Amino acid sequence: KLTSLALQPVVTPVLVQGRVHLKCTYSRVSSKLPLQYVVVWSRLSTSGKKEQIQHDTTLQSFSYVEMNGINLRLGDTVFCTVTAFTRDTPEQQSLPEESKGFYAGIKFLPESLQIAEDGKEHILTILSTVPIACPRHDDSCKITLQLITEDLDSQFLGPPDIALSACQVDLLQGPCSESSCAEAKLTVTAVTDFAKDGNRVSRIRAEPVGREDLLWRAHTPRDVKVTVQDLPTGNCYSFTDPHIITFDGWHYDNYKIGTFLLCQSKLREFEVHVRQWDCGGHRSATACNCGVAAR
Fold first, then answer.
1. Which residues contact 169 (CB under 8 A, 6 or more apart)?
2. Residue 110, preceding bond cis, omega within 30 degrees?
3. Which residue in 19, 151, 171, 227 is a FRET match for 65, CA 20 to 30 A apart?
4. Per UniProt, which keywords does this protein have (predicted)?
5. Would you call 187 helix, strand, or coil by DSSP?
6. What is the pLDDT of residues 208-244, one digit of tens each?
7. What letter does residue 241 receive in the DSSP assignment?
8. pLDDT in tens, 134-175
């Protein structure tokens, strides 16, 4: 019997005649015996079980399977299992060796986000693990993704708690390297809404647009779940003639006439100006708020 041969199969994406294929490569065994290889391709079903989709017997140290959008679609996790045997005595087989699962399709990195209402920008990468084919000889060597944000909490009727730096991104054709054949980046920021609405959960969806081929048109990438941590808001006051209470609870009065900078953030574009006029008459010098401007 043949022992374990350390075939070490690996699945990689390739373009063959302009169509997306997956290639299973494995180590050719240096043996005096003439060897053949059985390559079994399988995919994970929705129930988590492996379904066989192709069975090859070959003398080569590789095997191809086409992603045709029917029996093998984008969004599938694909495996190849390789067994070697001698041509003269097929019953002498090595132990089958299985590759790592290869996810074929578009995915987000990271796959989920936990952010806070602090104005910070968080980078989200969208990548395709398979190459972008060119169906025509024009500028269609790209995948355009429409990005959609949705609030997953049914008790909120307003817009989601997140904002994106772009509504559409393009994945352009390029060479594949390190599990990425095309990628784009955008930023995600929590909306600072000054409301005590608790921690809210939203999601980001990506939908391919403008593609005619079945492979991409039927692909729905996995969503990104974004949890937004609600931070406590602060209050400050300016009232009557005018008494001022700051965010940290300090009290003082300002009886001056004129326009003043009441509040300003050093981290973002946010400030409040107040205008005060003489409202005390001849008996006392008293000022009151008569106008306010906020950015």
1. 126, 144, 145, 147, 184, 186
2. yes
3. 171
4. Disulfide bond, Signal
5. strand
6. 887 777 788 888 899 999 999 988 878 899 998 899 9
7. T
8. 766 655 688 899 999 998 876 666 778 899 999 999 998 888
